[in-house]
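Protein: Gustatory receptor
Species: Tetranychus urticae
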Amino acid sequence: MNAEEAVQENRLFKRKSYFGTYQRLFLFCTELICLISVITINSLYFNLDLNSKLGVYALCRVILNITLSTSRFILILVLVVKSKAKASYLDSLHSIGVHQDHELKRFITQQQLYKNIVFATFLILQYATNVWHFININIYSGLRKSIHTIMLFTFPAVYLLILREIVDVCIHLQAAFKLVNSKVNSLLNNQPTNLASLTCCRLNYSYAVKATKAVENYFRYFVTFYFVKYACYSIINIVLTFGGSNDTYWIFHTIVETLLMIYLTVYLVSVNLLSRKCLDSLYELSFKMKRLDMKYENEIFIGRVLFTDVGFTFANLFTINTQFIASMFTLSLTIILALANFLYQ
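Structure follows.
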């Protein structure tokens, strides 16, 4: 059996799509209800006083709410439609021995358990915060109160369901790259190294990269939208806090959203970091090779790892890594200080 046949012998997953039939139906119906609710409740605020900076700022927030909700509905509709077909990353991410590695199977099981606990905790926190907010707000209209209830209790469920799926695929991508890295390390420790083993490692890495690209292509614009939405609402809430706003709900809501963003970002960045982790071992391996064909194979492998930026991207413009996160926080802080200075000077 050659290297490619060994890789293709078994599949890592047996699922046919990212989301099941009932999940797709839930996402579509819930998001449609949320969009109608947002447009209805925000349209009541178009009679704001525009003679002050804060009035214009509030109107901009209303327009932002409607724009982001409409964009989210379109993105989720695209996810629902694309998920009907077999998830393409399942064709690329072959078993490559993960099903035989007890340590990696334990890693996946453990990470999935942590994932379920974390998302259950975030769901409880968001619902508890929303209930507390619902009890303390003054809404006299029965219609507005009903719409507000729908918004508070459906938005978190939709977001957490999709983010949970993103974290799940990240866990399996981590396992694939961990396997490749361990095989490269075994080549470094076990001498002599043969060409077939090195070729198999490079082939496994290629499949892991193709799987990552397939996942990134599917979730790309939702991940981009998530970071844009988080940045917009965090900036708005922090600027209002600078103005003396004592709305504890929005402060606590921002803290919870920040923790969720950090948790998701750790998984997104980890895929990029693990895809480059084998570089040091490949460099050390090159010193021990005597045959020209093996040196050539190793140089191709190094070039693939070095010049292929693997991972999730922001609208296919920037790879989400540590530099991207630092730049995003710097830009957000600059906008916050500029807006606060403009509104409250």
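Remarks: Residues 3-344 form one domain.
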